[in-house]
Amino acid sequence: MQVTTVTTAPIEGQKPGTSGLRKKTRTFMEPHFLENFVQSIWNGIGGVEGRTLVLGGDGRYFNERAAQVILRMAAASGAAKVIVGQNAILSTPAASNMIRKRGAFGGIIMSASHNPGGIDEDFGVKYNTANGGPAPEGVTGKIFEATKTITEYRIVEAADVDLSTVGETTLAGMEIEVVDPVADYAELMESLFDFDAIRALFAGGFTMRFDAMHAVTGPYATEILVNRLGAPAETVMNAVPSPDFGGGHPDPNPIWAKPLVDLVMSQDGPDFAAASDGDGDRNMILGKGIYITPSDSLAVLAANAHHAPAYADGLKGVARSMPTSGALDRVAAARGLDCYETPTGWKFFGNLLDDGRATLCGEESAGTGADHVREKDGLWAVLLWLNVLAGSGKSVQALMAAHWAEYGRNYYSRHDYEGVDAEAAAGLMDHVRGQFATLPGTVIEGLTVESADEFAYDDPVDGSRSEGQGLRIGFAGGSRIVIRLSGTGTVGATIRVYLELVETDPAAMDRDPQEALAAVIAAAETIAQIRARTGRDAPDVIT
Ligand code: G16
């Protein structure tokens, strides 16, 4: 088989964002775009000769075509082996597990996560390192540098590899192993949780709905919840993955998973409900009549993880991204656990997990996970919740009420302004930065500003420093505003405004979050002039 060396030139805009390179699918389909980026990954990581890689994606439009290109490029650059999910499918946590379990050098995950899929929507490519986690900034920086100097790429001319059947084959001397995408992951979950207790919960009539949102978790949820845990088949909704996620937006939040939210809020709704996203790493948790914010979910899981066998001996520590609420910190303080605050992006948890400093991590953006893999893990979070419900014998509402009574409640909400003009967004950020020196000590909407700064992170393990990680305004009493620009969007800029208020009065635990946060929301408007600068009179998404 022939290896072709194709002459190319750098293509603008190949800088990896919060989690890999995400672009419009049509951009990825333009001549050389995918090939340039894949060759730049190889160049950035020091080549793939003699190395084993894992490959899989969330099944969105262009997934299998991209997989065929990546296989031919891995073969052309001398990779020893690629382990690929059947039909090029692997959820993000399953890919992370596969890299770790097989001792692979790294892996490529094809996904734009919660972004919609289809020829007119989004596609993405991410490189994960040997620990199974997203490449840290040091590595993505080298990949980006390589995209700016690329002059050629290597690719094998060959017919498509059959990825529909589990088994082994070769391509230009490179081994290809097509694996069942679900089996190893399901086995891992079974090793962490008390499946007997969860099985007994379902057998006792406990009802649940899991919305796979026509995305990658359908087969995983069906295997684990229905086949292994005995939940009725109707437990898994929208279980068949489709290349455009059924035309939907596979983001598990109250906006995009509204039918599920409506169901649990109804009179005859299930006891428990959850949803996951395009590539299976995010989760949303609901109980009958109650929506749990990701920040609260993380805190409650940290406080109750001991119900699961894997965490029965306690946690080594916990970590959250900076914009995530401080609910976790209250649990950590009460339990004497170290609590780390990292920038947005799962990659920042990798060192803490590898170094044994943290067991549980989470983010406000619907991400929760632990040290079993190096990605956030949607189904894992759902199973830990089930294990906690089974172990505690409490309903979701009762569990939350007890939690807030013990630790206080961090009212929390995120307001997103999507597709904003990039210059206007940058101007808004500069406007807020410009007030840092004068804000402390002032009173805005009845709130006294205590601090105003831009978050920078010094990694305690490798000493690296990451700057420009979000603007923070702290108020007396622990309330807070955080403003940052998303690193995952593909059109214009998305401004995220994170709002938080700490409530310790036991009589005030049942307020509507938007009402409880009214003064903080008004203060954000006063400080950032969001309406005037974006031309919007309301956020596009409120979570
Ligand atoms: C990715 C990252 C997360 C991050 C989220 C939102 O999630 O893995 O760590 O919190 O993006 O990032 P941003 O606020 O920059 O848009 P996913 O699920 O998209 O891979």
What does it look like?
Helix 3 (63-76) links the parallel strand 3 and strand 4 (81-89). The longest helix has 15 residues, at 378-392. This protein has 543 residues and is an alpha/beta fold. Helix 2 crosses helix 3 (63-76) and helix 2 crosses helix 5. The protein has three domains: 2-179, 3-Layer(aba) Sandwich (Alpha-D-Glucose-1,6-Bisphosphate, Chain A, domain 3), CATH 3.40.120; 185-407, 3-Layer(aba) Sandwich (Alpha-D-Glucose-1,6-Bisphosphate, Chain A, domain 3); 409-542, Alpha-D-phosphohexomutase, C-terminal domain (TATA-Binding Protein, 2-Layer Sandwich). 32% of the residues lie in helices and 26% in strands. Bound molecules: 1,6-di-O-phosphono-alpha-D-glucopyranose (G16). 1,6-di-O-phosphono-alpha-D-glucopyranose is lined by residues 18-19, 113-114, 281-282, 344-346, 363, 365, 367, 486-488, 496. One of its GO terms (biological process) is carbohydrate metabolic process. Belongs to the phosphohexose mutase family. Keywords: Isomerase, Magnesium, Metal-binding, Phosphoprotein.
Task: Map the helices and strands.
Blueprint: E1 2-7, E2 21-24, H1 25-28, H2 33-44, E3 52-57, H3 63-76, E4 81-89, H4 92-101, E5 106-110, E6 122-129, H5 137-149, E7 152-157, E8 167-171, E9 174-179, H6 183-192, H7 195-203, E10 208-211, H8 217-228, E11 236-237, H9 258-265, E12 272-276, E13 283-287, E14 290-292, H10 294-304, E15 318-321, H11 327-335, E16 339-342, H12 350-354, E17 360-363, E18 367-370, H13 378-392, H14 396-407, E19 409-420, H15 422-433, E20 443-444, E21 447-454, E22 457-458, E23 465-466, E24 471-475, E25 480-485, E26 493-503, H16 513-516, H17 518-528, H18 530-534, E27 541-542
Parallel strand pairs: 3-4, 3-5, 4-9, 10-11, 10-12, 15-16, 15-17
Antiparallel strand pairs: 1-7, 2-6, 5-6, 8-9, 12-13, 13-14, 17-18, 19-26, 19-27, 20-21, 21-24, 22-23, 24-25, 25-26
The protein binds 1,6-di-O-phosphono-alpha-D-glucopyranose (G16).
The site of 1,6-di-O-phosphono-alpha-D-glucopyranose has 16 residues, from loops.
